[in-house]
Amino acid sequence: NEFDVSSAQVLSLVSKSNCSSYDCEFVALAQHLNIQLITQDKKVLREFSSVAISAVDFIGLK
C-alpha cells in the first residue's frame, strides 16, 4: 500500500522535534491513520511518546 502524508504536517513535526523528516513522515502517517508507530528508534520513541511504542512494549514483554 502507498499512503500520502501532508508535507505541512511533516514539516511541523520536524520543527517541533529533533527527528529527521524521514522519521516524521512515519509519525505523521501513524497520526493520520490513528495507529501506534512501532519502532526501535530511541529518538522517535522519546520525541513522540504519544504515538510511538517499542516492539518490546507492543508485544508486552516489558
Summarize the structure in words:
With 62 residues, this protein is mostly helical. It has one domain. The protein is built from 4 helices and 2 strands, in the order ααβαβα. The chain has helices at 7-15, 21-33, 42-47, 55-59, and strands spanning 37-38, 52-53. Strands 1-2 form a two-stranded parallel ribbon. Helix 3 (42-47) links the parallel strand 1 and strand 2 (52-53). Helix 1 packs across helix 2. It is globular. The mean pLDDT is 96.
Task: Give the topology, please.
Blueprint: H1 7-15, H2 21-33, E1 37-38, H3 42-47, E2 52-53, H4 55-59
Parallel strand pairs: 1-2
Helix pairs in contact: 1-2
Features of the shown structure:
single chain, 62 residues, mainly alpha, two-stranded parallel sheet, 4 helices, 2 strands, 53% helix, globular
Rg, please?
Answer: 12 Å
Tally of DSSP β-strands = 2
Fraction in beta strands: 5-15%
Low-confidence stretches: none
Side-by-side strand order of the widest sheet: 1-2
Gap between N and C termini = 31 Å
Overall domain count: 1
Tell me the major beta sheet. 2 strands, parallel
Task: Summarize it.
The chain is mainly alpha-helical. Helices cover 53% and strands 6% of the residues.
